[in-house]
Amino acid sequence: MTSDYGRRSQHPAAKHGKGRTPRTAEPDKPGFQARAAAVKIMSAVIGQKTPLDGMLDDHHGNPAFSVLSLQDRALVRAILNSGLRHLTWIDAIFNSYLDKPLPEGASHLRHILSVAATQILFLDVPDHSAVDIAVEQARRDPRSSRFANLVNALLRRLGREKHDVLEGVSKAVSPLPAWYEKRLVATYGKETTAAIAEAYLKLAPIDLTVKSDPQHWADTLGGTVLPTGTVRLDKFDGAVTELTGFADGVWWVQDAAAAIPARLLGDIKGKRVADLCAAPGGKTAQLIVQGANVTAVEQSASRIKRMKSNFDRLGLTAEIVNARLEEYEPAEPFDAVLLDAPCSSTGTIRRHPDVLWTKGVDDIETLARVQYNLLVSAFALVRPGGTIVFSNCSLDRLEGEEVVEKFLRANPNAERAPIAKQDWPGLEEAITELGEIRTTPATLGGMDGFFAAVIRRKQ
Ligand SMILES: C[S@@+](CC[C@H](N)C(=O)[O-])C[C@H]1O[C@@H](n2cnc3c(N)ncnc32)[C@H](O)[C@@H]1O
To answer: Disordered: where is this region (predicted)?
Structure first.
């Protein structure tokens, strides 16, 4: 490998300022466009830190993705969901194959290799097809064309050795990126971090919150009821919109951990409750079903639109206020407030394997400050004697335990209302010594990482 990758272009198309134009007018091999979209999206996630979800939207996603057939879109989704989850392994394998690592500037080449390796190692795609297309992709890209033979050699070797190599790398290398593994070990220790890493490799099940009678819906849909009341569909692999009860609005998709914070407010029947940072409304829906008069505050108009359409399906109503929480001035304070603050979302890595590649320490630190300020604003909306639940789906102490600790130190009129283990049978392992909830992707056979604390405003 030479080290001037990316600086020198010997590709004829580059001379005409059309660096990405195919070298020849050959027709694309079947499946080429799908792999090209996968490489483009992988590059946007890793290089530009663009979240995956938006790019994989059927209608408004990345243009290279939206134009694909249904079948090709499914393939691209599978490649990215699996590839991002296993990226540290894939990088480690190629590093072990090369005398020296791919040069820093060889990002496009790296993504071509990762996309092909994902298919060879984890997907039901014939190896030769993954290899041929990757070689063709390298040939057509002026920055990678001179590495086409190397791509061919690396991927063919991977195909031959895949079983042994996968066994070896899975024992030696964590699937978590190093920066994040270090943070987790510092907080949770090696054992829990290893369990989180294992959970990261698995696809998350579908969890549903039902309006009532979870056992009936678990029986109807072939699921189980978790101790927290969530209905879990472990084996379901299809469109949830086709499931019984969806059109009738009797349940909504919500991770088991995400369903905990709203329940921490206890008996809220007939009370005035504000759900701050509310969209897309999963927790608002719970509060309404629990019998509260709910005001949902949300700054994003587009997310409010989505929340309203969710409530239409569920036949639920709430007062919805499009405002920044910091500027919201209700006529009178609330009996209870739920603040599900924006966060780094590192607890959701099973469902969003891109998070650990798009977020970093700076984001966590910035979001921790945002959360603290939101908590200050939210607390001002609670009446004396009232309660506030602060929650988010980060695994990071800085965005959870430490926000609450700092807030309680600065606010003598606030006190922690400890959550009692006996009130949450089955979830005892997630209740901390201070009486806060801390779940991880390894809790209760797998749920999102969540933090929640109950704070009371003194009389
Ligand atoms: C983690 S999501 C909330 C999820 C929601 N609680 C649920 O269960 O469906 C955070 C939400 O907070 C909103 N948000 C962020 N900053 C805000 C602010 N300053 N005021 C109001 N809403 C805000 C975001 O637009 C986003 O919809």
So the answer is: 1-30
